[in-house]
Each structure stands twice: as structure tokens, then as C-alpha cells.
Amino acid sequence: MNAETLTGLAPDSTYVDVKDVPWQPTRFPGIDWKILMEQRETGLSTVLMRWAPGARLPKHEHVAIEQTYVLEGSFADHAGVCRAGNYVWRRAGSRHDAWTDEGCLMLAVFLKPNTFFD
Hints:
By secondary structure, the protein is mainly beta. The protein is built from 1 helix and 10 strands. Strands 1, 2, 3, 5, 6, 7 and 9 form a 7-stranded antiparallel beta sheet that branches. Strands 8-4-10 form a 3-stranded antiparallel beta sheet, with no helix packed on it.
């Protein structure tokens, strides 16, 4: 392909300078995020999430598989605790609430947005 054919097409790779992406508050107190990638048409997203000590995410359902890698701190649910350097994934249809005592920083990948029951 020549350069003229490629004009107007999205690049194959999109590099994100994460430090320049602003933290945004979520609707849940003490939980902020940086949206690194989002496809609104499919619901796919990758986010960096920062939870303050004591933050809690109310009961919700994972509509599709969710994956989380904890970079700092830890967070928990009824099934256990995920600490820095560990990874957890949840099946579609799983329901839980989640919290952190010490605070945490995590990278999360959602295939579809969660459904909340609040």
C-alpha cells in the first residue's frame, strides 16, 4: 500500500503516555480512573484504577469476563484478597462487591461494562 491509500485510516498501534491521561472520578467515592482505551460500540475498555484506603465498589455483575492486575496495595471480595503483583479474573455473570482497606492501584480490562445494583 502506498501512503495515499493509508490516509485517513487509524494507525495499527496507538501509544498512550499514561502520565498525561488525567485521573477522573468515578461515581463511587474514593475510586478514580484513567481510561487508557475504550471502544464505546463494544464496551471493551482498559483502565488504570486508583482506590483510596477504605473505598468500596457496591454489588455489581460482570456482564463479560473482567481481568485485573494489582500494581500496588490490595483489594478484596467475598472470595479472597488480590495483592500487588497478583492477577484475578472473573467469569461473565459473577456478582460481588469489592473493597480495599489499604488502597490500591490496578490495571483492569473489561469486555463489557459492569451492571450495578445501587
